[in-house]
Design brief:
It is a single chain. With about 290 residues, the protein is an alpha+beta fold. The strands form 4 sheets. The protein has a 5-stranded antiparallel beta sheet with strand order 2-1-11-10-9, sandwiched between helices. Strands 3-6 form a two-stranded antiparallel sheet. The radius of gyration is 25 Å and the shape is globular.
């Protein structure tokens, strides 16, 4: 004989079913990583690109054309290396290499003699403006020819938003977009010397016969928790604080471009926020 449920039993059973369904939906939603809102990032223009798939993971004003400051020096390095110039050649620094536009300081004095290889190292690692200026000045045909080669290289890389006017990035007329700079970072990563020099934490160079120590402008390269394959920082007032990297995060090879970050530590903060979000997402959903 089939037992008839008491009305109260039916109500309890219904509530239990609703509770189980709510828990199931809650757990499913908890397993899904919440998207990182671009507004949470303090950089005005951002792109994060998955190198393996070509997927744009984060896009915030990635097509805005803005000054790029010393990110320019990645292009400077590529143009020097493409020309196959003798890296052991000694170069005398001159007054023509002094920054008269921004008045930025340099520890390298006029008359100092360094090899082109040392200038390349200091331009990439320490963002030495005088070193970058000397590389452009001593290029065959001089600075004008060098800038022409920079823009030709940009065209070859399909960097349609980009324009270069000097080797240092001190001019705000060196402009690009975050999307273009992702192309620049990937292209620069193909050069072993750029990878090595841009991620070296520190180096000692002899100037006037005396050892002089220099450090990397990106403190993250000295952090063992980060695996960085290429790095470059930049700053002028018109560009804000900028950072580009080719970096491993959440078992993925990524290009990270952060432009016009308004606070002194904001670009590093944004990089850390991006990493935390990606690693949290990967832990919750292994397919991401």
């Amino acid at each position: 004989m089939q037992r008839t449920l008491h009305p109260l039993e039916g109500i309890v059973a219904a509530f239990a079913l609703v509770f189980v369904l709510a828990l199931t939906i809650g757990f499913a939603q908890a397993a899904e990583p919440k998207p990182l809102k671009p507004a949470a990032l303090r950089s005005a223009s951002v792109i994060v690109l998955d190198v393996g798939t070509g997927e744009i993971v984060i896009d915030k004003n990635a097509d805005a054309v803005v000054p790029i400051a010393s990110i320019t020096k990645l292009m400077t390095a590529m143009v020097i290396l493409d020309r196959g110039l003798e890296l052991d050649q000694r170069v005398v620094l001159s007054r023509d290499d002094v920054d008269t536009r921004k008045g930025s300081r340099s520890r390298l004095r006029n008359g100092a003699v360094l090899t082109r290889d040392e200038l390349l190292l200091l331009a990439l690692m320490s963002s030495e403006n005088k070193a970058a200026a000397a590389l452009g000045r001593t290029y065959p045909g001089g600075t004008e020819a060098f800038v022409g080669a920079m823009n030709q290289k940009a065209t070859a890389l399909a960097m349609s938003d980009s324009r270069f006017v000097d080797a240092t990035g001190l001019s705000p007329r060196n402009v690009s977009s975050a999307r273009d700079l992702a192309k620049l970072v990937n292209a620069a990563h193909d050069y072993p010397l750029i990878r090595e020099y841009s991620t070296r934490s520190r180096a000692t160079v002899k100037v006037y016969g005396r050892p002089m120590a220099f450090g990397n402008t990106n403190g993250l390269v000295r952090n063992s928790r980060w695996t960085i394959g290429l790095s470059k920082t930049g700053y002028i007032s018109e560009a804000g604080r900028c950072l580009v990297m080719r970096v491993q995060m959440a078992s993925k090879d990524l290009v990270v471009v952060l432009l016009d970050s308004w606070g002194k530590n904001s670009r590093v903060g944004d990089a850390t926020r991006i990493r935390t979000w990606l690693e949290t997402a990967a832990a919750r959903s292994p397919s991401i």
